[in-house]
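Subject: two folds for Thursday's group meeting

Dear M.,

Sorry for the delay on this. The cluster queue was jammed most of the week, so I only got both jobs back this morning. I'm pasting them in the order they finished. Each block is the input sequence followed by the predicted C-alpha cells. Could you check whether the formatting survives your parser before we put anything on slides? The first protein is the one we discussed after the seminar.
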Amino acid sequence: MKLKDRIELLSVLGKKLSKSDEQLDTVVRKAYHHNRWFVEDNVRASIRAICQEFLDKDKLTAWTSQYDFDSERNAKTVGLVMAGNIPLVGFHDWLCTFIAGHKSMIKLSEKDKILLPYILDFLADIAPETKEQNIVVDFLKDFDAVIATGSNNSSRYFETYFGKYPNIIRKNRTSVAVLNGKESEEELMNLGQDIFKYFGLGCRNVSKIYVPKGFDFERLLEVLHEYREIVLHHKYKNNFDYNFSMLILNKIKHFSNGCLLIHENESFHSRIADLHYSVYKDITNLAAHLNENAEQLQCVVTGMELPLLETVKFGETQTPTLSDYADGVNTLQFMELLRQN
C-alpha cells in the first residue's frame, strides 16, 4: 500500500467517525461501561478532535510531505504500549506507525480497550490488507522498536525491558498556565476547558497556574463555576470530597467554588479536582524556571509572550495538531529512522 493510499484510507476513516451512527453509538456506550471516566461527551470530543486534526487528507499530505514512506523497504514491527488516561490517547502513536508503513503491535491499556479496536476493525473491513499491519496483543514479542507510555515508575521498567531496542519511552507530564490577572472572561472560560476537559486526567490538562501577587482568585473561581456540572460525575465528586477533606484536616489555606479546589503548592502535578498555584515576581525568571523543567511539562498555556518558550493559547490544549508530538519527540521522524537501520 502506497502512502497516498494510506492517506486516502485515513480520510475515509475520518469521514466515518465524524458521522454518528448506531454502531459508533454502541461503541461509545460500551467504552463508558468499561471505564466510567469515559463519559460520552469526552469520547465524542476526542473522536471529533482526531477527525479534525489527524484525519484530514490535506493535513496528512502536508505532514508527511518531507518523508519517503512509499517504499516498503525495511518496514519494521513497532510495539505500542498505550496509556488509557483519556479516550484514544494513543491514537497518534498508532497513526505515525501506520502512515509510515510499519506494522503496529499494540498492547492496549486496560482502561481503553474498546475504541481503537473498533477503528482497526473498520479499516480491516474496507482494506483487508491492514489486518496484518495492525495487531492487538496481550504481550509484546518479536518486535523491532517500541513506543511505551506510562508513569514515572513504569518508565523505569520500560527502560530496563525495552532499552536495547530503538524506543520512545514517555513519563508523567502535565501542563501549566501563566496568568497576568488581566485575562478576559472568555480567556478564563477557555482556561476552564484546559483544566476540566477529560476531568483533568490528560498530560495536556492544566494542573497548575502561575499568578502575580494580588491575583483575584474569586474572579477566576466565579468564571470557572460555569463548569460546576462536572461534580455530578460521581468519580470526580469523590475526588473533590476527599481532597477537600484533606485540605481541611491539614489546615491548608485554599479556595473553592464547589467544583474546583485551588491551593498553593510548588508541584506541577495536582490531584483530580485540585489546582495548584504559585506566585511569580518576574516573568523572565518564571520563563527560565519553566524552561529548566521542560521535561515535566507538555503545554504552557498563556496569553502572554514568554521568553524561550513555546506556548499554547487558552482553550487549545486538547486539540493538538499532527505536529504536536508528545514530549516534544518527533514520532514521525523516529518512524523514518527505523527504516534506515
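Second protein, same layout:
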Amino acid sequence: MLRICRRWFGGILAALAVGGLAAQEDTPPIDDALASFYERATVAPAKTSIYVGNVKLTMKPFTRNGDVYSSTYDAKVFPFFFYSEAGRISITITDEDLRSLAAGERVYFNGEGFDTSEEPRKIEGHADPADERSGKIKVRVWVSKNIELIFNTIYRFDG
C-alpha cells in the first residue's frame, strides 16, 4: 500500500493547478490585462488519508508560460517519512478554460506530474470557481488501473 501511495504524489500536484482542456484553434488569445491576471496561481496545501496515515502536499506558486502552468512540490507522508518525496509538475490550461473559470463555469482537466525518478501519474479532475480569482478543485489520481486517490483543495489566481 505504501508503495502505491508513493507513486501518486507527483501526479496529484499536476491536478492541483487549475485545470486544462484541449485548446481550440479559433479561440482568440486573452488580452494582456487578463493574461497578467492569470500569470500566477497559488494552490493551498492538500491533505488526504492513506491506509495508516496521511499525506500533505505543498507547492510553490504555479507560473504560466504560454498555456503551461508549472511548479514544484513536496509530499510529506506521516508516519512513513521515508516515502516523502519532491518533484515537478506542469499542466496545459488554455485561454478558453480561463475564460470559462472567470465566467463561473466548471472546467474539467487532466495532467501529469513527475517525481525525481521521472515516473508520470495520470490525473483527472475539475475546478469549480467561487469567483473570477478563486475556487475549489477536486482531483482524482490513478496510481494503478484499480486504485485512485481523491483530493479536495482550493486555488487562487495571484496576478
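Two things I noticed about the second structure. The chain has one domain: 2-157. Residues 1-26 have pLDDT under 50 and may be disordered.

Cheers,
T.
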